[in-house]
Write a structure and sequence with these properties.
The complex is a heterodimer of chains A (307) and B (274).
Chain A: H1 2-33, H2 36-54, H3 96-132, H4 134-148, H5 152-163, H6 167-177, H7 179-193, H8 197-204, H9 209-245, H10 257-265, H11 272-300
Helix pairs in contact in A: 1-11, 2-3, 2-11, 3-4, 3-6, 3-7, 3-9, 4-7, 5-6, 7-9, 8-9, 9-10, 9-11, 10-11
Chain B: H1 10-20, H2 26-37, H3 52-87, H4 92-105, H5 109-123, H6 135-165, H7 168-175, H8 180-217, H9 223-232, H10 236-264
Chain lengths: 307, 274
């Protein structure tokens, strides 16, 4: 009975911890709503996400269907364009809009999942490293040094070259190569937080380490990581498109933005839209994430507010 | 198979395995590789049939030329732009350049390269589309590689300058009646340089990754393009050699940055006695 009681009390405590956090989240949200650029970024990102998830409800063109009679059909606003292919077609007569929409799924999925992998791994290792110190800290930080000594892009290229291209491999490789930034950031903050009185007090009354880390340390060091993670999504999406541009993204024939660019490059003199449109899509996505990330940083980190 | 004809007999394959040392335990193979690697011997390229190091030395200058030009382009434009934005905070110039910088970091550099190619080479016919040789060949690869760096440096310079300009010693300098220009360029910029040097050093890794794609876009005959060809051609000794050299440069730059600190900030010292 006793252990059950303490367990349910723990759950109650955790819930109580969340209330101020939820309150805080609302404050941050309000702060973001006050910033036009951050709000524009947020709305744009939301639109992109919704479109990427929901487009099959209204849009039914298969991205792999070849319409050889309509090869290199330009976008609708240019002479020779048709409403059938709003953004035109490529060298095999495949619909650009459809490929763009399916490609957005790959980019967003890889971007968000890789950041999830990297941040979970980085936060865990950073917390352990900073909180326990000593040999564990040394061990984790030396591994981090090895990762830091290796150019990020080269690491992903060489690992993908060995493992072979697939969405899963991309997520894992991009995620694992990027954990160091999170771990180092969080370790630094943990080192300064763990000497504070409230942590010492909590340890003095015998709170288990796990509870101290989750209740006292993590909430105090998480804000910079939220900003970091948001901005990293943008970087990862750029890297993903770069890898698929080099032919190391997802296996063909799956349409991705990077592959569309590299295929379009062959026909750059005849069909400007093949190389222009996918790049614009990448740029809009990245821009929306960056705008939101900048706003989040200003809202979460009051020290930087007026800069 | 790459090294033997497809109809090679079992015995031939075994002989080749023995000859290449594939039958030894992994740690023996690794030790053999490591001992040779630190002496600059990465074996022979499977495709070109010449020592890997020779290929690397032949291609390295092109990559360095590209990376260094991109870095210079980025720094030379970003620092004045960042300072001006910080000093004239809230002005049209500030808002315009910061919006430009935001666009700059949101653009994949290889796409910028393709767009420049579309406009300056195909549409206007001003610049050559690919290859290396004259200064005109260098412009597009260097600018497309350097633009996002420039945008990042400009943002960083601006925010660091704003922070520094609000410090007490700047107020003192103003109270002393020093010229604003002296304050900005002599007092403030010196302190703002430290984070800039750190980030510039770290971003060198980005540059190395960037050359891989940009060299492919512009058919620039450097290491980046070679490593991609080597990966697709499964030319493993060549891949190992290039990756080793890239990492070596990367670590070297980071060491250089650490040494530079001591000159930039007298408070930092690596000797234990202090």
């Amino acid at each position: 009975m006793k252990s059950k009681d303490s367990k349910s009390k723990l759950i109650d405590d955790m819930f109580e911890d969340f209330l101020p956090n939820i309150h805080r989240a609302f404050e941050v949200l309000k702060d973001i709503l006050k910033r036009p650029s951050a709000m524009a970024g947020g709305i744009l990102l939301l639109l992109i996400l919704l479109t990427s998830v929901l487009f099959p409800l209204v849009f039914h063109i298969n991205p792999l269907d070849q319409d050889l009679m309509a090869r290199f059909s330009p976008p609708v606003w240019q002479d020779g364009g048709t409403w059938k292919h709003i953004l035109g077609t490529d060298n095999l007569g495949r619909d650009i809009l459809s490929r763009l929409l399916y490609g957005s799924r790959v980019s967003l999925l890889v971007g968000f999942s890789a950041v999830l992998v990297a941040s979970v791994a980085g936060i865990f290792l950073g917390l352990v490293s900073g909180y326990y110190g000593g040999k564990i800290d040394h061990f984790i930080m030396r591994i981090a040094d090895v990762f830091m000594a290796y150019p990020f892009m080269l690491l992903t290229i060489s690992v993908i070259a060995v493992l072979g291209p697939s969405i899963f491999n991309l997520i894992i490789v991009l995620g694992i190569s990027d954990w160091v930034t999170y771990a180092r950031t969080i370790r630094g903050s943990v080192l300064s937080i763990k000497t504070k009185e409230f942590v010492e007090a909590s340890r003095a009354i015998g709170t288990p380490d796990l509870i101290i880390i989750l209740r006292h340390v993590l909430p105090n060091v998480i804000s910079p990581l939220i900003v970091l993670a948001t901005l990293r999504v943008a970087n990862i999406i750029i890297w993903e498109s770069g890898l698929s541009f080099l032919g190391m993204g997802t296996p063909p024939p799956m349409p991705t933005w990077g592959r569309m660019l590299s295929e379009g490059r062959e026909y750059i003199t005849d069909a400007w839209w093949l190389v222009t449109i996918p790049g614009l899509a990448i740029m809009m996505t990245i821009l929306s994430i960056n705008l939101l990330g900048d706003g989040l940083r200003d809202a979460l980190d009051p020290r930087l507010k007026n800069l | 198979m790459l090294m033997l004809p497809g109809d090679a007999s079992y015995q031939e394959i075994e002989e080749l395995r023995e000859q290449l040392g594939f039958n030894d335990p992994l740690y023996v193979q690794y030790a053999r590789f490591a001992i040779k690697a630190v002496q600059g011997d990465f074996g022979e390229s499977l495709y070109y049939h010449v020592p890997v190091m020779e290929l690397i030395i032949e291609r390295l200058p092109a990559s360095l030329e590209l990376a260094v030009s991109a870095m210079i382009f980025a720094l030379v434009l970003a620092i004045p732009l960042g300072i001006l934005s910080a000093v004239k905070r809230g002005s049209m110039l500030d808002m315009g350049s910061m919006f430009g910088a935001l666009l700059g970091i949101s653009m994949p550099h290889f796409w910028l390269g393709i767009m420049m190619m579309l406009f300056f080479s195909i549409h206007l016919g001003w610049l050559p589309t690919s290859g290396r040789g004259t200064f005109a060949h260098l412009i597009m690869p260097a600018v497309s590689l350097g633009l996002s760096l420039m945008a990042m440096f400009a943002r960083l310079t601006r925010s660091v300058m704003l922070e520094v300009l609000s410090l007490d010693y700047i107020r003192t300098a103003r109270a002393k009646g020093l010229k604003e220009q002296v304050i900005i360029y002599k007092h403030a910029l010196k302190n703002a340089l430290i984070p800039l040097v750190t980030v510039a050093g770290m971003q060198f890794g980005f540059l190395i990754g960037g050359t891989v794609i940009i060299e492919t876009v512009f058919a620039w005959p450097g290491l980046g393009r070679l490593v991609i060809q080597a990966i697709f051609g499964r030319d493993y000794p060549l891949v190992q050699g290039i990756v080793f050299v890239f990492s070596f440069i990367f670590v070297g730059i980071n060491l250089l940055v650490d040494i530079l600190y001591v000159y930039l900030d007298p408070q930092i010292s690596y000797s234990e006695e202090k």
